[in-house]
Amino acid sequence: MFFGRVLLVWVIGFSCLLSFAFGATILPDDEVEILRQIAKKLGNTNWKFSVDPCSRQGGWVSPSPNPNDKLPNGVTCNCSLVNSTGCHVVSIRLKSLSLPGVLPPELARLPYLREIDLTRNYLNGPIPPEWGSMRLVNISVLGNQLSGSIPKELGNISTLVSLVLESNRFSGVLPPELGNLSNIERLHISSNYFTGELPEELARLTKLKEFRISDNHFTGKIPNFIQYWTNLEKIAIQASGLEGPIPSSISLLEKLTDVRISDINGTGTAFLPLSKMENMNRLIMRNCNITGKIPAYLGNMEKLKTLYSLSLSLK
Ligand SMILES: *[C@@H]1O[C@H](CO)[C@@H](O)[C@H](O)[C@H]1NC(C)=O
Ligand SMILES: *[C@@H]1O[C@H](CO)[C@@H](O)[C@H](O)[C@H]1NC(C)=O
Ligand SMILES: *[C@@H]1O[C@H](CO)[C@@H](O)[C@H](O)[C@H]1NC(C)=O
Ligand SMILES: *[C@@H]1O[C@H](CO)[C@@H](O)[C@H](O)[C@H]1NC(C)=O
Ligand SMILES: *[C@@H]1O[C@H](CO)[C@@H](O)[C@H](O)[C@H]1NC(C)=O
Ligand SMILES: *[C@@H]1O[C@H](CO)[C@@H](O)[C@H](O)[C@H]1NC(C)=O
Ligand SMILES: *[C@@H]1O[C@H](CO)[C@@H](O)[C@H](O)[C@H]1NC(C)=O
């Protein structure tokens, strides 16, 4: 009886020791080495390599300097992935740290990485084409000094749900391969120097919920194919370079809650038939060469909080 209890305690104690000794929460050496190379490329000195990266200690998890960032910065590991033993890096979040480096191609050597968030740093240089081999879900490099065009290889990331490239110095035309991002819900590329027409292949992005392309140098008309984006909730096309008219097929997008279209030249349109969009919350249409009457249905948009529709030529 007494002996039995001692044995039980001993067995439990030993198995705890075992799981510790065999590293139930310890990152394998090869991934640690890759993190070392990544830190060097980013110019990140916040990680202490004397401490296990999965321990959430030693600078591997820390609050973002920006109090508006809800999630902490850091490296997240998952030690219970399906079909895989040991721990692996699944997310790297380094926001508002003034990182001075470049985007590391080495990220592609972390096979379980699903999220990269490098929002608001001073990173420069291009997006490495190597990233195209990853199975990422979320990418954000918002608010850096990145340049070059979007590599066509990014179109290979069929798992991608959110791509945020806003407020950088990206240029060039959008690669048609972006039309292969069949799971994408959020595409934010405002405030860059993109040129050319929107590729027709984007018509296939039918899961899109948010599309933002404001403040760019695109050419051509606002494409009629946006009518296929029937899950669209938010759209921002302000001073994008695109010309009107705003296609009337936008009326098919009944889930829209936030529409910001402004500063488009070209043929005028009548006020859009948006009467089915009962959840409209914000509607900004400024300098869009809209003519005609303000439609009565605006009075039925009960959730509408903001309406700017200046520079209309009303009759
Ligand atoms: C780890 O991955 C598994 C399988 O995808 C998932 O069920 C689990 O919630 C993840 N654990 C953590 C801590 O993220
Ligand atoms: C795990 O492996 C099995 C058999 O190879 C496969 O059918 C399944 O899709 C895999 N699961 C994941 C999440 O990769
Ligand atoms: C992607 O980002 C969303 C929040 O925007 C989050 O809920 C989700 O868990 C992230 N996915 C991964 C795989 O990190
Ligand atoms: C992208 O996918 C194509 C095939 O669809 C493949 O030939 C190419 O090597 C892939 N590129 C990368 C960077 O993974
Ligand atoms: C990706 O897009 C390109 C150009 O639109 C196309 O030629 C290619 O076949 C697509 N690849 C895959 C794997 O769907
Ligand atoms: C629209 O036309 C005006 C006047 O011709 C021009 O100054 C402006 O740059 C044009 N805007 C765009 C977005 O093309
Ligand atoms: C507005 O549209 C009319 C035709 O509907 C066109 O004549 C005029 O040039 C357009 N104005 C601008 C600023 O593009």
UniProtKB/TrEMBL annotation:
<dbReference type="InterPro" id="IPR032675">
    <property type="entry name" value="LRR_dom_sf"/>
</dbReference>
<protein>
    <submittedName>
        <fullName>Uncharacterized protein</fullName>
    </submittedName>
</protein>
<feature type="signal peptide">
    <location>
        <begin position="1"/>
        <end position="23"/>
    </location>
</feature>
<dbReference type="InterPro" id="IPR001611">
    <property type="entry name" value="Leu-rich_rpt"/>
</dbReference>
<dbReference type="InterPro" id="IPR051824">
    <property type="entry name" value="LRR_Rcpt-Like_S/T_Kinase"/>
</dbReference>
<dbReference type="Pfam" id="PF00560">
    <property type="entry name" value="LRR_1"/>
</dbReference>
<keyword id="KW-0732">Signal</keyword>
